[in-house]
Design brief:
The structure holds 2 protein chains of 2 kinds.
Chain A: E1 2-5, E2 10-13, E3 18-19, H1 20-27, E4 34-38, E5 41-42, E6 48-49, E7 54-59
Parallel strand pairs in A: 1-7
Antiparallel strand pairs in A: 1-2, 3-6, 4-5, 4-7
Chain B: E1 12-14, E2 19-21, H1 23-40, E3 49-54, H2 58-69, E4 73-80, H3 91-106, E5 110-114, H4 115-119, H5 123-129, H6 134-153, E6 157-159, H7 164-177, H8 180-185, E7 189-190, E8 198-200, H9 208-218, H10 234-248, H11 252-277, E9 281-282, E10 289-290, H12 296-304, H13 307-312
Parallel strand pairs in B: 3-4, 3-6, 4-5, 6-8
Antiparallel strand pairs in B: 1-2, 7-8, 9-10
Helix pairs in contact in B: 1-9, 2-9, 5-6, 5-12, 7-10, 7-11
The chains are: A mainly beta, B alpha/beta.
Chain lengths: ~70, ~325
């Protein structure tokens, strides 16, 4: 499957099928700090991703001082 | 995974609430959290005019969307910071595009202020010339200009998109250094008066992940890229640290912040009030409330546009368009 990552923007390939939770663990990403987006919706951790899927792992943290 | 509310397939799991939601129930949850925050902290009275500070990011655009849907009379204020504007893909240029597209789609009124055009400096140049950290110069500019625009426009309330993660991270930073005046002011509502418009944070019951999910599910395009000036700042480090704690202990961030509000915040209030009311007068340059003769913003503008200071830090003004100063 194709995985779009951000900051910096880049695309990688990961062999599927694989559950979202396992993908995040493999990428070393904290599940509290990202969304996994497939098409125009988000998918929870137990979703099985297919080898043909295109997904985005989008960070949700924004920063700066108040 | 099923939605805990309607049993349809879930799109998001919220470990903090030990629940999962489908799209419709999640959107209901988010609006409900904002409504509860507004009611619980008496943020906005019926009929009041609200000015929401928008940056093109998920929190501020999401907040604007929710307040409109909840029926509030709310306009947006966008502040152009001149960050990375050497290209069409630059940070400020892109964030402005997302903001204008949202406003047009929702047919909402957007007010714009541009730092380079209206005040003669951008954040990278101005912060360097004034010898301030970029986030410090940015925050100071925003606080001053949002308040001034609200005063000028006759708004009753300024709403900002600070969410639970923002507040928990700031709280952690203030506790680590025992900044007692800041702790006394870290509230979801800062009352108005003495030239300050009431400020509210309706997203304090929602985390960053919830707001990002809200925007994706509502089809709101926002700037995903982090501000290049914020890279490596302490605030982001605190967020990452809190995320690690939250992973092992869901709900820890909310408990940290809300237990502070209910059990400890009042202990620091007298210190903050004393500091704020101590010798408050009008800035001799712009008329804003200040404890000095010139407010911090006017001092920043003066330094940020001083040609000698700009030259000394080796920053070319280049594209910066000098404009009027207020």
């Amino acid at each position: 499957m194709k995985i779009l990552l951000r900051n910096p923007r880049r695309e990688i390939e990961v062999a599927g099928p694989m559950r979202v939770g396992a993908l995040l663990a493999q990428l070393g990403v904290n599940r509290e700090s990202v969304l996994v987006i497939r098409g125009d919706t988000i998918v929870p951790g137990d979703t099985l991703l297919d080898d043909a899927d295109h997904v985005e792992v989008r960070p949700v943290i924004s920063g700066g001082l108040q | 995974m099923k939605c805990k509310r309607c049993q349809d397939p879930a799109v998001i799991e919220l470990r903090r609430h030990n629940t999962a939601f489908c799209t419709d129930c999640f959107l209901h949850h988010v609006r409900e959290q904002v409504r509860r925050a507004i009611d619980e902290f008496d943020m906005i009275e019926p009929g009041q005019r609200v000015l929401v500070a928008v940056s093109g990011g998920k929190d501020s655009l999401g907040l604007w969307d929710i307040l409109l849907d909840l029926g509030y009379e709310v306009d947006g204020l966008y502040l152009g910071l001149g960050i990375g504007d050497d290209s069409e893909q630059g940070y400020s240029h892109s964030s402005g595009v997302y903001t204008r597209e949202f406003a047009a789609r929702r047919r909402a009124r957007l007010i714009e202020i541009d730092l380079p055009t209206d005040f003669g400096y951008d954040i990278p140049t101005g912060a360097a010339a004034a010898r301030r950290a970029p986030c410090s110069a940015c925050g100071l500019s925003k606080r001053h200009l949002f308040n001034q625009a609200a005063v000028d426009g006759g708004y009753d309330v300024v709403a900002t998109g600070h969410n639970l993660d923002d507040e928990a991270a700031v709280l952690l930073g203030n506790v680590l250094r025992w900044n007692v005046e800041y702790l006394g002011r870290q509230l979801p509502v800062l009352p108005g008066g003495n030239g300050f418009v009431r400020k509210v944070k309706p997203l304090v019951r929602l985390g960053e992940r919830e707001m990002a999910a809200y925007c994706v599910l509502r089809g709101i395009d926002y700037i995903v890229e982090e501000c290049p000036m914020a890279d490596g700042n302490r605030h982001l480090g605190y967020k990452h640290a809190l995320d690690e704690i939250e992973t092992g202990s869901p709900g820890a961030k909310a408990a940290f912040y809300f237990e502070f509000l209910s059990k400890a915040s009042s202990l620091f209030r007298p210190l903050a009030i004393a500091e704020q009311e101590d010798g408050l007068q009008r800035c001799e340059s712009c008329g804003a409330p200040t404890t000095g003769t010139v407010c911090a913003f006017c001092a920043l503008v003066s330094r940020a546009t001083d040609p000698e200071r700009v030259a000394a830090v080796g920053v070319r003004l280049g594209r910066t368009r000098r404009g009027r100063r207020r």
